[in-house]
Design a protein that fits this description.
By secondary structure, the chain is α/β, with parallel strands linked by helices. It has three helices and six strands.
């Protein structure tokens, strides 16, 4: 990684509309690989000030007024020299990323365990249609590893 111009440790950007820094990410990480908070102005001055005290003023990115503007967030990360973004989150964030046209690929793991719940989709919330084509499909002992890609334009 270092030979390719990347840091030893990845930067972590947490998306939070409330401006809250998860407690486990509030601890200093040493050299490289810090935490960035991506939030919106609606989080409020108190939450933004608390996040800036925790992470440092330059580590809090306010992208959007009422909610996090994901396109602006990606632009802010790219301007910081972070053009390769791996997004991990829940079904609402996935729906928002897809709706914003920011989904280039999706990795999905299916394990052989039947589980129920109230959410019915891998993406929930914002309506989104993001066509994908299979890149890699691997099966091992009943577990499916999948990588889906945006089709070529």
């Amino acid at each position: 990684a270092v030979a390719e111009g990347r840091a030893d440790r990845a930067e972590i950007a947490v998306v939070s509309g409330s401006g809250r820094v998860p407690p486990l990410l509030a601890e200093p990480t040493g050299e490289g690989g810090g935490v960035l908070l991506v939030t919106c102005a609606a989080a409020g001055n108190e939450a933004l000030d608390r996040a800036r005290r925790t992470l440092g003023g330059d580590r809090v990115l306010v992208c959007g007024r009422e909610r996090v503007d994901l396109r602006a967030a990606v632009g802010a990360l790219v301007r910081r020299g972070l053009p390769r973004i791996l997004c991990e989150g829940g079904p609402r964030l996935l729906a928002d990323v897809a709706a914003a046209g920011l989904l280039d690929e999706m990795c999905l793991t299916v394990v052989p365990l039947m589980a129920g719940g109230v959410q019915q989709r891998v993406a929930v919330g914002t309506a989104a249609d993001a066509p994908l084509v299979p890149g890699v499909l691997i099966e091992s002992e009943g577990t499916l590893l999948q990588r889906w890609l945006r089709p070529p334009s």
